[in-house]
Amino acid sequence: MMKQILVTGGTGYIGSHTVVELQNKGYEVVIVDDLSNSEKDVVDRIEKISGIRPIFEELDLVDAAGTDKMFQKYSNLEAVIHFAAFKAVGESVQEPLRYYQNNLVSLINLLNCMRKYKVQNMVFSSSCTVYGQPESLPVTENAPVQPAESPYGNTKQICEEILRDSVKAYPEIKAIALRYFNPVGAHKSALIGELPKGVPQNLVPFITQTAIGLRDQLSVFGSDYNTVDGSAVRDYIHVVDLAQAHIIAAERLLEGRNEENYEFFNLGTGTGSSVLQVINAFEEANGLPVKYKIVDRREGDVEQIWADTTIANEVLGWKANRGLDDMMSSAWAWEKNLREGDC
């Protein structure tokens, strides 16, 4: 019998890629998503890639009663991979209460149901934002958690605290938090990728939408950071590498190989790239110019951050394998396929 795994936010960007990787490894997937930042036809695209249609439930996890009914319906769940959250740094500064309600309450409802229905394993989608502006680089798991630079980052910090306290109080529950850096790129099929609703909040979809003519130009937030070219630096990681890390983490829990009931790992490439370097990489990979302008810094952004991935490589047994060229070429293939209506 196939092991059944719940993927919250499974029609979203990282979630959809993780569903594909889970199905490729023989797991039965139940997706729950409220479609607030994704489209239902992603389920069709997942089926085209893997040949398997995942189970789909449209549900807002802030709804405690609805979440309970969903767990009742799927009584064979063995793990939860929890992506569902609001995730835009800038938007969180403008709408903090919306972010706190959604991101915290959904996790609490899931954990309550996991206890009630004896689902023991959770992989949590965390973020490098928990480190704030780090004191030293690259960032290791031993780096202190700094005051968050945004409400979004603070929700990830609080969610990790909720997890840490919960597994201590309820030792039947085990959790791994994956603190990842900046996922970009798309599946090689170009059938799934990053699809923000409205104006993109992240760099790469704004690049691809500008290149294809949907946006007049890209705004680069800040040119006076203490970095190689004055623009902010991030650790960009291919979304498929990231998806595969979630399967490795889930299997670590399912097979009882975790060393503690609560573990956390940094996921990145270990290399920082500036915004201007990413724009240049896109232009070189795809032979296209991208119009951009320099504007003021954006509230909530940190200056630079990239990962030390040693512990993820050695303890988790995972490593990022795809480079910036692959990230940029796959993102562009996805954008073109999306606009041409072939998927």
Question: How far apart lie the N and C ends?
Answer: 32 Å
Approximately how much beta-strand content do the residues carry?
A: 15-25%
Give the C-level CATH assignment of the domain at 4-184 and 235-268.
Alpha Beta
In DSSP terms, counting alpha (H) and pi (I) runs of 4 or more, how many helices?
A: 11
**Mean pLDDT across every amino acid position:** 95
EC number: 5.1.3.2
Protein name: UDP-glucose 4-epimerase
Domain NAD(P)-binding: 6-329
Catalytic activity: UDP-alpha-D-glucose = UDP-alpha-D-galactose
Structure explained in plain terms:
Homodimer. InterPro entries: NAD(P)-bd_dom, NAD(P)-bd_dom_sf, UDP_G4E. It catalyses: UDP-alpha-D-glucose = UDP-alpha-D-galactose. Its EC number is 5.1.3.2. Strands 3-2-1-4-5-6-11 form a 7-stranded parallel β-sheet, sandwiched between helices. It contains 11 helices and 13 strands. The longest helix has 22 residues, at 96-117. With 343 residues, it is of the alpha/beta class.
